Task: inverse folding
């Protein structure tokens, strides 16, 4: 059972401290949403948890082992990371982009084992991409590319999935769908960590919420306990209303 523990993480960039001694945990089978205003440090926290940014102080533990002690390949097999606004730099087909998510799993030489073909087909179907499979990824809309990148991040069945703003640019149906996919991955045992600005979606899919403000964790715990009007009002410096309905939670702000 995977467990990621961030222990007293401080990150200094240039002359600014952008994370101040942040501690939290992400567990297998749980979906944690990281929320907070622009510049709060969400992407920085995700980068550190993914092992992409070494903290200035503190450490990240993965199942009791320092993340920094894992080999690059082991890390690539166990965790997938999807940055905000991912890009494709040259014309490569959708199918190939999705297949890149398998790189760490493949033998270093020789042909592609047949078993992976079926995995690629499933990943394309799962994200509604079958019709786009031969299109150059450079010619997709922003929302289509976001789905391609989600398919790529999840095709290797990572134990830890870290995703930064996966629904930016998605239409309501595909945003909900992406949320459901991430929820399903957590239900299947993956530790899923997602930075989100869409708080209604956060309320719908999160088990736990980490609320960051100015580089400090202001609240973390079960979603119901963190997504309160008082916490959100303080977090975003604006009056917040949280209504619980039969469909879920509706969060409104009043300036
Ligand atoms: N490479 C960098 N060098 C210096 N400062 C940086 C760098 N990257 C980010 N920062 C600063 O760190 C702080 C946290 O940035 P971060 O991207 O983690 O915030 P965020 O919560 O993800 O914001 P957003 O919601 O706007 O994506 C910001 O003040 C930002 O200006």
Result:
């Amino acid at each position: 059972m995977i467990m990621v523990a961030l222990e007293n993480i401080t990150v200094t960039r240039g002359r600014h401290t952008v994370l101040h001694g942040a501690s939290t945990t992400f567990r297998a089978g749980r979906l944690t949403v990281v929320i907070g205003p622009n510049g709060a440090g969400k992407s920085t926290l995700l980068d550190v948890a993914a092992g992409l940014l070494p903290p200035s102080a503190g450490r990240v533990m993965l199942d009791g082992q320092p993340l920094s002690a894992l080999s690059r390949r082991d890390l690539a097999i166990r965790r997938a990371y999807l940055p905000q606004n991912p890009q494709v730099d040259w014309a490569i087909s959708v199918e190939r982009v999705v297949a890149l998510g398998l790189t760490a799993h493949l033998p270093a030489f020789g042909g592609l084992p047949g078993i992976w073909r079926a995995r690629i087909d499933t990943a394309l179907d799962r994200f509604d991409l079958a019709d786009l499979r031969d299109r150059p990824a450079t010619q997709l809309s922003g929302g289509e590319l976001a789905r391609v990148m989600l398919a790529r991040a999840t095709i290797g069945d990572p134990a830890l999935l870290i995703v930064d703003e996966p629904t930016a640019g998605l239409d309501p149906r595909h945003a909900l769908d992406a949320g459901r996919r991430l929820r399903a991955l957590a239900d299947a045992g993956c530790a899923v960590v997602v930075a989100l600005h869409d708080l209604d979606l956060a309320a719908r899919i999160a088990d736990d919420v980490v609320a960051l403000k100015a580089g400090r964790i202001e609240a973390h715990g079960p979603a119901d306990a963190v997504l309160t009007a008082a916490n959100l009002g303080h977090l975003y410096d604006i009056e917040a209303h949280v209504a619980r309905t039969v469909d879920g939670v509706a969060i409104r702000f009043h300036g």
